[in-house]
Specification:
elongated; 21 helices; mainly alpha; TPR repeat; Arc Repressor Mutant, subunit A; 82% helix; transmembrane helix; single chain
């Protein structure tokens, strides 16, 4: 009896501990969801703690939830390669035992593919979600379908098929009336952008107002940066640049106040801001926001390139798993059929052809991904080249106009030359630095005379004095020597 009672107490202790762990996991996942857009790293920490607990009690249901939340957090942080790794872990553990789970996993996967620019894979995942949930009319299924229709709307909007984009966003608007937890703000914003694309400005403004009205229900402690951005884009479309600038700045401020990491949004806003300042002939602010945009784009492309390789591996692993399943089925069929060897051989032949076709498809998909990666690198180089050319043209223009801002931009573009010249002469004045900079840029004596409004003789005299000061040999070309300053190895 004592042994029996001890056993019962032991089992009760295990059960109580598991119940406590389940409650703790649910609490951590709830915290992770709440922090996902406020503090991405904190959200990830909570999700990681939950996954460790789920692994300790070996509960497949909880493992799925925690791994999926980890993948979602990493996607939000623009760490697409890590997000795809967790998706891979879920698939390896084979814990996708119901349609809702399969659909949710594919949703996060499609989000990663969309961010990586893998359009065909993104579209494939979205269509498979709708197929999985085609006969499922539960509230969870409707919520997922509402989001998928919105994703499809965005897909066709990017492709320029605004009519089809409008059809899908209307499906989301319809489902929002039927589900328990709709996202009206996001849907109204998406609808507003489509209306702008279709040149229905009155309709766009109507849905922008509806999004702000829905935001009031949420209260003042929730972020509004997506609302400010669509309103700014509306004014940009209407060419009301002052109001557009105000709302773009509100977008960035709101993201900063809520510590939101949305790289794509930040890049798009800064791109629009520098373009507006360009239209307003405000070169200083134009250059400032252009530099910020380029820096963020460079970081973003770097993360994308890492994620592309993970996507390739993920696809290849999926195909390998399919081949293993097929081989296993072939063995079972072979032993069951026994004497029907002819049928078995035919079956295996067809299966092997299918495997070969899938393998070939994988190689084709891999080549597409590699090509996409090269295109991204090419676009990055082209953007850097154009940005440098724009800066150089601006520098030439400032020099020709004898503009004092020339020296600021010159030092930014050629910091090594400036530093080396100051090391050769720590007391060099700005006027002398300006003169040397013109020579560095290979302006002729006559051009320097024209742009600085002095005589040719005065320019030649100044060159003579600088030659003496820096010990420039008389036989060496003055401009060539100035170019060599940038290559000097000084202590």
């Amino acid at each position: 009896m004592m042994r029996f009672l001890s056993f019962i107490i032991f089992l009760s202790g295990i059960s109580y501990a598991q119940i406590g762990a389940v409650k703790k996991i649910d609490s951590l996942l709830s915290l992770s969801a709440n922090y996902e857009f406020k503090d991405g790293l904190q959200s990830l920490k909570y999700a990681k703690q939950a996954s460790i607990l789920a692994e300790s009690i070996n509960d497949n249901e909880l493992l799925f939830g925690t791994y999926l939340q980890m993948a979602d957090c990493l996607y939000t942080l623009d760490m697409f390669d890590k997000s795809l790794e967790y998706i891979k872990n879920i698939e390896k553990k084979n814990i996708l035992n119901n349609p809702i789970k399969r659909a949710r996993l594919k949703e996060v996967k499609s989000n990663n593919f969309e961010a990586l620019g893998l359009d065909e894979l993104n579209l494939k995942e979205l269509n498979e979600i709708l197929e999985i949930l085609s006969s499922n009319e539960t509230n969870d299924a409707r919520e997922i379908k509402a989001r998928v229709y919105a994703y499809l709307s965005n897909y066709y909007e990017v492709k320029g098929d605004f009519k089809k984009a409008d059809e899908y966003i209307n499906k989301t608007l319809k489902l929002n009336k039927e589900i328990l937890k709709p996202k009206p703000i996001d849907t109204f914003i998406a609808k507003a952008y489509i209306c702008l694309a279709l040149k229905k400005t009155d309709s766009a403004f109507y849905f922008i107002n509806k999004s702000f009205d829905s935001q009031k229900v949420k209260g003042k402690y929730s972020f509004k940066y997506t609302l400010y951005m669509v309103l700014a884009d509306y004014y940009y479309y209407k060419e009301n640049y002052p109001l557009a600038l105000i709302n773009y700045q509100k977008t960035l401020n709101d993201m900063a106040s809520f510590n939101i990491k949305d790289t794509e949004c930040s890049m798009m806003v800064k791109e629009k801001i520098y373009k507006i300042y360009g239209k307003l002939n405000d070169r200083r602010n134009e250059q400032k926001y252009l530099n910020e945009f380029k820096n963020e784009l460079s970081t973003y492309n770097h993360e994308n390139n890492k994620g592309l390789q993970k996507a390739v591996n993920l696809i290849l692993d999926e195909k390998d798993n399919e081949k293993k399943v097929i081989k296993k089925k072939n063995k079972i069929i072979f032993f069951l059929i026994g004497g029907l060897s002819t049928l078995a051989i035919a079956y295996l032949y067809l299966r092997n052809r299918k495997i070969y076709k899938r393998k070939r498809d994988v190689l084709v998909e891999k080549e597409k991904l590699i090509k996409k990666n090269r295109e991204l690198e090419g676009q990055k180089k082209e953007l850097n080249k154009k940005a440098y050319q724009n800066q150089f043209n601006e520098l030439i223009s400032l020099a020709k106009n004898n503009n004092p801002e020339f020296l600021i931009l010159f030092e930014e573009m050629y910091p090594i030359f400036t530093a080396n010249l100051k090391q050769l002469n720590p007391h060099v004045r700005n006027s002398e630095l300006f003169f040397c900079a013109l020579a560095f840029m290979n302006f002729s004596t006559k051009e320097i005379s024209n742009y600085t409004f002095v005589s040719v003789a005065a320019v030649q005299l100044r060159k003579h004095r600088i030659r003496k000061k820096y010990n420039i040999p008389s036989h060496e070309d003055f401009n060539t020597w100035m170019k060599s300053v940038e290559q000097m190895q000084l202590m």
